[in-house]
Amino acid sequence: MKQITLSTILLVFIFLTKINAQDIDTTSVEINDAPKGWSFGLLPTITYNSDLGFQYGGLVDLYNYGDGTAYPKYEERYYVELSRFTKGSGLKYFAHESNKLLPGRSVFFNIIHRTDEAYDFLGLNGYESVYNKNWTDTKSDSYKSRMFYKNNTSWLRTKIDVLSHINDDWSYLVGLNYFNFKIKSVDIDRMNEGREEDNEFYLPSVSDVPGLWEKYSEWGIIDEDETSGGTYVGLKLGAMYDTRDNWTYASKGVWTEAIFIWMPSFIGSASMGNLHLNFTHRQYFTVVKDKVHFGYRLGYTGNVIGTEKSFALPMMYTVMLKGATTQGLGGSRSLRGVKRNRVVGNGQVFSNAEFRYKFAKFTWMKQRWYLAFTSFVDAGRVLQLLPIDEKMVDFENQYKANNNGNDYWESTGELKTDYFNLGAESFHVSYGIGFKVSLNENFVVGIDYGRTINDQDGDSGIYIGLNYLY
Question: Is 276 helix (H, G, I), strand (E, B) or coil?
């Protein structure tokens, strides 16, 4: 899969080339008058993916600083993101945060509709599911399909949370989440539009080369009642301790939250009936005043009672979303460089450590700007494994009973070790660097590049988007 990302690269290039000695006033970074009223950032989206087609759209991030007395904190924020690929995938996302609607409370509302025609599915339990990148490499002798580790997933998520402030540091949360997932096989015909059969990138049909999602469904690892998705509701109750000096870029303080999400069995089609815990602790330090800072994040996300349906397992739950995507360990919002959804089980732990260096601060067009470099190390693993070995034994025994005692693997000519490495799960680790451009402390555009240390996690990833990871 080839992808060219242009939007932020163009934005940063134009921004940097337009700056000259008359534009920048490096001596007046500390402005007496803080920003007041509304401030916004605008970012176009222009990408190309050989399978998904052209992506077009953009986003707007609006902040209201009121009279400016609380700057860099803000009274309210609106975020809108719309984008679409020409072959069907797309994103519609709206978020609103208000710190003035209810006295002493913060209200968070968002709604997202995401259609992903090539959604990553790399199995369950991390390294217990083998990832073979040669199966997706058209130049490899063992090539199967570039869509082997994909399915077609769309979801609608709505959430509203009310954070009530007990004092300056402590708050408690009540909230409601609604999820609707629809899952099916990749639409190969749509992917192949405009290609001849002798084209290197012409994809085989799912009936000829079933993907991992189809195989997990056949083997019973993915239960029959969840192969096409479902709906569920999550009732949230939590607490937060927050002493950060800035919501977007903290130079000191602690930000810790614990959230319980109950998915009652009598609401929704998924009938999960489980209790999920999301615990995250973040802490920030100043290394060199106004220039170098360090922050780390430690977290756990998993079920303390019951097990979620497979389509819900990657979901992560937070109070304040840093972006539209909150799924899975692996990828832009968790383990940078590791393939998306690589670390999925019934419970996961994760950590991030990042140095942030503000190497340039200036005013331009009467706005406050800074440029920053980052370096990071990310890690995570499945802590609570799912019983995929037990389900495979059940399937193999049933296959023998229905096929005159023949062994499934001998009958198909496949190797079980190509799919499973039971007992192999350990920490998935990545590292990398990043670059950030910030407007008025809160609108942050960035590029992160992460690399893995184990090729079972993929090779590397480049991520262009908004905000810091935490």
Answer: strand
